[in-house]
Amino acid sequence: MSIRFQCPCGKRLSVPDGSEGHRVRCPVCRTVTRLPGEKRSDKADQEHEASEEVQPQEEPPPKTTAPRARILLADDDADMAAVVTALHGKGFDVVLAEDGEEAIELLQEEDRLDLVIVEVTLPKANGFEVCRAAKRRDPARPPMPVIMVTARQKQGDTDLSHSAKADAFLRKPFRPSDLCRRVEELLAPGAH
Question: According to the model, what pLDDT value does residue 59 have?
Fold first, then answer.
């Protein structure tokens, strides 16, 4: 028996039973996502599971280029699949977090994250908390750019994003190409 799910890139995947709550990587688009269900407490199992490849149900196309940068996308909006697709189209590797708590965990666990895109109104820990966590990381590492996004129309959100030291702020709805352009600007050499 296996668990079937659909990656944000649209690929239908299956993993063995017992994988609930684990992070898995899509072999096609390289997106890391957590499967629904109870999360296991054994850290060694989680680390092992995060490195395992999910078996696609059909043969993936050959990968042409290596990702240039690794982006943490923290947003609970299901409509962000177009953003994931656009980022992959630009060659970026995307790690997904569905709430602020998971995003902060990933900031602490992941060795190589180059940029964070975070929704202001995340459950468990809001986007401002995630932004502050990204900016507090090891000072020996280069600064991590943060783009905050929201559908809310509050002027205070812009002010709070500046006080949290966000590098950019976008209001939804926006075109995925606009977000990709901001990502490329912030990751360009000399941008920070």
Answer: 52
Our measurement of the distance from residue 77's CA atom to the centroid of its chain's CA atoms, rounded to an integer in Å, reads 12
- Report the distance separating Cα 114 and Cα 146, nearest Å: 9
pLDDT tens-digit readout, 95-135: 999 899 999 999 988 878 999 999 998 999 999 999 999 98
Domains of the chain with CATH codes: 2-56 (no CATH), 70-187 (3.40.50.2300)
* CA distances (Å), origin 32, targets 16, 72, 93, 191: 17, 10, 9, 27
Please state, in angstroms and rounded to a whole number, the distance separating the CA atoms of residues 123 and 67.
29
Question: What number of residues does the chain have?
Answer: 192
Name the amino acid, one letter, at 168: A
Closest CA to 53 of 97, 4, 13: 13
Helices (H), 122-173: 127-135, 155-163
Amino acid at 169: F
Per-position DSSP letters for 128-142, written without gaps between them: HHHHHHHHTS-TTSP
What confidence score (pLDDT) does residue 2 get? Answer: 64
Going by DSSP bridges, is the β-strand pair 32-34/2-6 parallel, antiparallel, or unpaired?
Answer: unpaired
